[in-house]
Amino acid sequence: MDPFMPQLVYIEPQALEYPLGCELKEKFEKLGLEIRETTSHNQVRGIPGENELQQYRNAKSTLVVGVRRTLKFDTSKPSAEYAIPLATGCMGHCHYCYLQTTLGSKPYIRTYVNLEEIFEQAQKYMDERAPEITRFEAACTSDIVGLDHLTHSLKKTIEFIGKTEYGRLRFVTKFHHVDHLLDAEHNGKTRFRFSVNSRYVIKNFEPGTSSFDERLDAARKVAKAGYPLGFIIAPIYMHEDWEDGYRELFDRLKEHLAGLDLPNLTFELIQHRFTKPAKKVIEKRYPKTKLEMDEEKRKYKWGRYGIGKYVYPDDEAKDLETTIRRYVDTFFPNAVVQYFT
């Protein structure tokens, strides 16, 4: 698939006080994109569309260039200690994504240009925890790789963390546009992870993302560039013949990664879950979705901030975990499963 290109760009005036903001404005002007001014991302108005669904889809191809004003980083367990805020929003259309509700009525993509201030705050967190390692997750609120061919914010962050003593960077992606990241001076301190899934899940629930083969070709590239590599299998979903579907996933993974030296390969396993607000939004935005969200078939589990979610019942969750862990042990016996949740 082609790299993301916004159809409409909003720029906050304050963003032009930073080099990256000016660089992006000039880039988008040369590309002939429509550029509008907005005082704040909260004031974005006029996204085209005859109805809410059309506006939602157009918002997914709208980029807001702005400044990250809140420099207190969110926590990011179990993946990392902190989420480093480089961007918000995603160009993909994954039906199950938690960003459906966390971004609410603002599904457009935001990129933050005050990188020096963000890095300064990250350094403070590292200094507070030293000599312990501090891990930063760069993909909590976006698929940063899908945007970075335009901004290079991720590349700058990789090189910033690469120069630190106690910092580590992590991010996950469903996109394959990684060529500009291959020569980054990461110094082995950034773990590059790819989200993968069964054919059924990718076909039915992940429109607007790179294909499995494209993701795995990119994984080979980043492994050859010396990045520590990992895979997130999420959401693990009980579709018809799911055991065979996930076994085939590992067959294909093994084939694509043949011949690579992967001394620190990791897997993270996340079962499918949804909240009641998410279900309402998903059914509105993707009315023909095949995503199963029957509360009667699920277990209710309290989450962060008192917001509960529906996960698989204990016996089904255990079946999922046991099966996927067995596949990891069979196909990648030296890999580490970091968690199942």
β-strand amount = 15-25%
With strands numbered from the N-terminus, the spatial order across the biggest sheet is 4-5-8-9-10-11-12-15
Order of helix and strand elements from N to C terminus: EHEHEEEEHEHEHHEEHHEHEHEEHE
Distance between the termini: 31 Å
CATH architecture: Alpha-Beta Horseshoe
Structural class: alpha/beta
The number of distinct β-strands equals 15
Helix count, DSSP H or I runs of 4 or more residues: 11
Number of domains: 1
Low-confidence residue ranges: none
CATH class: Alpha Beta
Question: What is the alpha-carbon Rg in Å?
Answer: 20 Å
Helix content: 25-40%
Do you know the CATH topology? pyruvate-formate lyase- activating enzyme
Any idea what the shape is? globular
Largest sheet: 8 strands, mixed
What does the average pLDDT come to?
Answer: 94
Short description:
The protein is α/β, with parallel strands linked by helices and 341 residues long.
